[in-house]
Amino acid sequence: MLTTLLLYLVLGAVAGVVAGLFGIGGGLLIVPVLIFSFELQGMSPDILTHSAVATSLATIVVTSISSMHAHHKRGAVRWDLFKPLTLGIMFGAFVGATVASYLSGTSLQLIFGIFVLAVAAQMALSLKPSAGEKDASSAGLSGAGSIIGGLSAIFGIGGGTLTVPYLSWRRISMQQAVATSAACGLPIAVVGALTNVWRGWDLTTFTDLSLGYIYLPALFGIVITSTLFAKLGAKLAHSLDGVKLKKIFAVFLLLVGARLLLTNLLGG
User: Fold this and answer.
1) What is the CA angle 75-81-87, rounded to 5?
2) pTM
3) Structural domain boundaries, residue 246
4) I want to staple 257 with a disulfide (CB 3.0 to 4.6 A). Which of 84, 99, 117, 170 is the partner?
C-alpha cells in the first residue's frame, strides 16, 4: 500500500507539472497511468478503465478549483460565456459518464486511445482551428458545451483540449480561452465524478476504499501533489522551450495511445 500511495503521489506531481506547462488538464496523463497501475494491482478488467476515468474526474474537481480561482483573480474568465456553456456541459457530462458506464473496459480503452492519438497529432503538428464566427447564441454555446461535457466525461479529462480550440474558433483571446476552459473543467468534473459514483455504487469494486468507481487512495495521493506541482509547471513554462516540450509530450501520448490500441485490438 505504501508503494502504491507513493506511485500516486508521484503521478500527481507529474500531472501537475504537465498541466502547468501545457495548460491542459492532467487527465490525459492520469487516466492511462491509472489503467496500467490498476492492472498491476489486480483490479478486475471489467471496471479498471471505468475506475481510472472516474478517479481522474474526481481529481480534477479539486485541481480545477485552484486553477479557476487563479484565473479569476486575473480577470481572465469570460463568465458571460461560462454560464451558457455550463448548462450544456452539465447535461453532456451526465450523459457521457452514463454512456461510458455501459461500455466495456476494452471499448473504453480503444476510444481513449484514439482520442489520445488525435491530441498527440494536434500537439506535434501545432494544429489550430481557423477563426470562425465571433458571436454565438446562448443555445449555440450550450450545444457546444454538451458535446464538450459528454466527450470529457467519457475520457476522464477537464475538457481543456476541447474547450480551448472551440473558444479560439470563436475568436476569444488565448488567455481568456484558457481561463474560461479552466472554469469549465469544474462542472465537467463534478457532474462526471458524481455520475460515476452513482453508476458504480452497487458494483463490487477493487476494495472497500472505493466510492462507486472512484478509487480513493489514488484520488487522495494525486490531489495532494498535483496542485502544488502545477505552480512549478507554470513557472517552468516561462523558462523552457515550450514548442520542444510539446513535441516530447506528443511522443509520450503517441506511445500511450498506440499501447492502448494494440493491447486491446490484439487481445493482450
Assistant:
1) 130
2) 0.90
3) 2-265
4) 117
